[in-house]
């Protein structure tokens, strides 16, 4: 005899499609999948590409500044930098003013790679099939969300 399986009425707050975390997670996976073949032409992984983006924006940063900008700890960032250095795209050198600081600078080869990378954002915009102002607004919304989620909690004032 077959037993009829009944499921309780789902709580809307617990439906997968109502979860912001899942929407962000699955969109991130889709974005990374989109970037993979684009970055293969540059011989970069996605995290390496992010490092290069920061250095193309501002060369000669300290490892700690780079880590802050990318929200990566040194244990994650150091191996990335090591691989990029081995690929000849950047150099790491101790600061003359403060030996505790390591400066990260692009090599001529790393600067040249920027020209090849210039086509990537256009490919992403095309794949998103979304007007640029809408994508920029979405980017700002996600950045605001990240800031709110990482901000220290506001203490409650007892009345």
From TrEMBL:
GO MF, any single term: DNA-binding transcription factor activity
Localization of this protein: Cytoplasm
Pfam families the UniProt entry points to: Staph_reg_Sar_Rot
A cellular component term, taken from the record's GO annotations: cytoplasm
Broad class of the protein's primary localization: cytoplasm
Keywords linked to the UniProt accession: Cytoplasm, DNA-binding, Transcription, Transcription regulation
Residues covered by the HTH marR-type domain: 17-144
Signal sequence range: none
InterPro entries according to UniProt: HTH_MarR-typ, MarR/SlyA-like, Transc_reg_Sar_Rot_HTH, WH-like_DNA-bd_sf, WH_DNA-bd_sf
BP terms from Gene Ontology: response to stress
Protein name as it appears in the record: MarR family transcriptional regulator
UniProt lineage: Bacteria, Pseudomonadati, Pseudomonadota, Betaproteobacteria, Burkholderiales
């Amino acid at each position: 005899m077959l037993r009829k399986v009944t499921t309780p009425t789902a709580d809307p707050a617990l439906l997968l499609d109502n979860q912001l975390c899942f929407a962000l997670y699955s969109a991130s996976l889709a974005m990374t999948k989109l970037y993979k073949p684009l970055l293969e032409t540059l011989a970069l992984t996605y995290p390496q590409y992010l490092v290069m983006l920061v250095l193309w924006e501002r060369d000669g940063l300290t490892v700690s500044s780079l880590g802050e900008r990318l929200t990566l700890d040194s244990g994650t960032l150091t191996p990335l930098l090591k691989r990029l250095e081995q690929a000849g795209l950047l150099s790491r050198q101790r600061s003359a003013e403060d030996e505790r600081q390591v400066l990260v600078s692009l090599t001529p080869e790393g600067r040249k790679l920027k020209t090849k990378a210039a086509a990537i954002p256009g490919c992403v915009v095309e794949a998103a099939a979304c007007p640029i102002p809408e994508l920029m607004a979405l980017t700002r919304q996600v950045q605001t969300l990240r800031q709110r989620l990482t901000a220290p909690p506001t203490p409650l004032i007892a009345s």
